[in-house]
Amino acid sequence: MADFREFYPLRRHNTFGFDVRARLAVSVRSEKDLVEALDDPRAQGLPVVVLGGGSNVVLSGDLDALVLLIEIPGYHVTESAGTDGSVHVTAGAGENWHGLVGRTIADGLPGLENLALIPGTVGAAPIQNIGAYGVELCERLASVRAYDRQTRTFVELDAAQCAFGYRDSVFKHAGRDRYIITAVTLCLPRPWQPALGYTELARELEGLDQPDAARIRDAVVAIRSRKLPDPAVIGNAGSFFKNPIVDATQRDALVAANPSLVSYRQSDGRYKLAAGWLIDQCGFKGVSDGPVGVYAKQALVLVHHGGGSARDLLALAHRIADTVQERFGVRIEPEPVII
């Protein structure tokens, strides 16, 4: 029988540190734990909320729900069955993502180094299709193992079935209430080629002709540490807003009016705009609004100093988004999942 905890405090399970509670919560350390918790009579009729590290969620209030705290461990390496020489690494959904990056590098398996220091668990990574410094998870993902609540079976979903997009996947839409991820299998390339196309990363590695994966990982960690606050010190979920994507015509009009606009051309001819630059231009960088505010070193990051609520944070986020739209005609959207 599942070891449920009633009215369980979730403060340490969300990186904003909001003081919210769950009607029922249970630690899930295996697939057997997961099935038992979902089938337990005490949980019937309650909505189900899945939490990993809580690094990319905003808990808007107490949850009258069954909260599954995913802590499934596991790490296994296999040679790919294909002819490309790649290596498959399968990790449990409860494994720490940054820890996995470090372990693969230590094992001589490069490919995840650009994604270092992204907070959260392995199981949360596909939901958000995490990405940084020129690499997205979808480029390294072979499959996801998940419990299908509709068919009550465990299934394997390949990258196409995950319907990945920019900070998006099927797990945020049709599959949000259907799939619970228990493991992720990554496909690490051989031969490996470093991804150094991101200007800031290339600048950090300037002077190194052939940086290895560990050096790249260290450079990414250095950059992120300078720009982003430690959630253990200041409540935050990293970048709060997605970088908006606009067509070439709109981007050209914005550049004409704002010559210093920061943008990146996409493969389909559209442009990704730097949301942090847009917010900074609107004067929000470093602004405080009671218990919440905008981080002084990075306008993309909203912070919670303590004593506040999700209502305070979301009010500030709406004000920022409205101001950006009024000035630039572009709508920026939250990156975290709001529960």
TrEMBL record:
It catalyses: UDP-N-acetyl-alpha-D-muramate + NADP(+) = UDP-N-acetyl-3-O-(1-carboxyvinyl)-alpha-D-glucosamine + NADPH + H(+). It is an enzyme of class 1 (oxidoreductase). Gene3D superfamilies: 3.30.465.10, UDP-N-acetylenolpyruvoylglucosamine reductase, C-terminal domain, Uridine Diphospho-n-acetylenolpyruvylglucosamine Reductase, domain 2. Keywords: Cell cycle, Cell division, Cell shape, Cell wall biogenesis/degradation, Cytoplasm, FAD, Flavoprotein, NADP, Oxidoreductase, Peptidoglycan synthesis. InterPro entries: FAD-bd_PCMH, FAD-bd_PCMH-like_sf, FAD-bd_PCMH_sub1, FAD-bd_PCMH_sub2, MurB, MurB_C, MurB_C_sf, Oxid_FAD_bind_N. SUPFAM superfamilies: FAD-binding/transporter-associated domain-like, Uridine diphospho-N-Acetylenolpyruvylglucosamine reductase, MurB, C-terminal domain. The active site is at R167, S239, E335. Coiled coil: none annotated. Its EC number is 1.3.1.98. Pathway: Cell wall biogenesis; peptidoglycan biosynthesis. Its cofactor is FAD. Residues 18-191 form the FAD-binding PCMH-type domain. It is found in: Cytoplasm. GO terms for molecular function: UDP-N-acetylmuramate dehydrogenase activity. It holds the Pfam family FAD_binding_4. Belongs to the MurB family. Cell wall formation. This is UDP-N-acetylenolpyruvoylglucosamine reductase. It comes from Cupriavidus pampae.
